[in-house]
Amino acid sequence: MPTPRIKSQNSYINNSSRAIGSLWSRRLTKNHFVNLDFNNKYRKNIKHFASTYDDLLDISDFFENNNFLFCTGEINDQLVNSLINSILFLSYKDNNSSIKLCINSPGGSIMAGLALYDAIVWTNKSTNTISLGLAASMGAFLLASGTNGLRFSTPNTRIMIHQPIGGIQGNAVDIEIQVKELLYHRNNINYLLSKFTDQSLSMIESDTDRDKYMTPLEAKEYGIIDRVLNCRDSFKPSIKNCKKVRSVKKSNINWASFYYSFNK
Which residues does the entry assign to the active site, renumbered to this chain (predicted)? Predict the structure, then answer.
């Protein structure tokens, strides 16, 4: 006599999920919208038939289908792996379309950022980089790495470049090895920034020796971006009143950058 088998709780859950998914696939029609808080496993099942029912696509799917990718927060392996997957998918789907990479990041891992840069170069796709909020460290590097003429910034973004930062500990030999590795990354990043911006290598080395913050106008003159995106016309009258603020020393602020951002 065969030994009776007891179904686990997970098997009941899986069977129920398949049944519900089958029911949805039969009953969903065009113009129906379902807002579900599924985990990634079940969201993939929805995406499988979302190509037929476009209204099921969530916001991230909508932007990805229109070649918009978002590099936000710390640049780490998890974020970059997700972006690389999307880039390779977009390249496979349509090799002629450009990637629009929106950046709002304080920086992060050098190797993760370089992996993302290499993936973009590998696909040989035109890349439109757009900075919003903050593009610092590796975020500024990725901003500058976009296709010439397609590197944009919003007026109030702050852009910062500096040399690599790392913590080192261990015995003398280990420290020497890590210092050499850090210097390699510094030279590599400086060389690539020099290539992106058309600045001399000595200029890049001097400017990245310490944190160098820039307005979008200064970043445009430096060669990191190509264009400052304009704000709405309704903002123009209020910005002209900035010169009335007497408590701010002229040496601490560049009014020309404000006028440029809102009046060009």
Answer: 137, 162
pLDDT band at 218 (very low <50, low <70, confident <90, very high): very high
Going from N- to C-terminal start, the domains of the chain cover 20-57, 72-229
Query: Could you read off the pLDDT of 17-56 as tens digits, one per residue?
Result: 444 444 444 444 433 333 334 344 444 444 444 444 455 5
With a cut of 50, say whether residue 105 has pLDDT above it.
yes
Task: For 153, list phi and psi in degrees, rounded to 5.
Answer: -150, 145
Catalytic residues: 137, 162
More confident residue, 4 or 200: 200
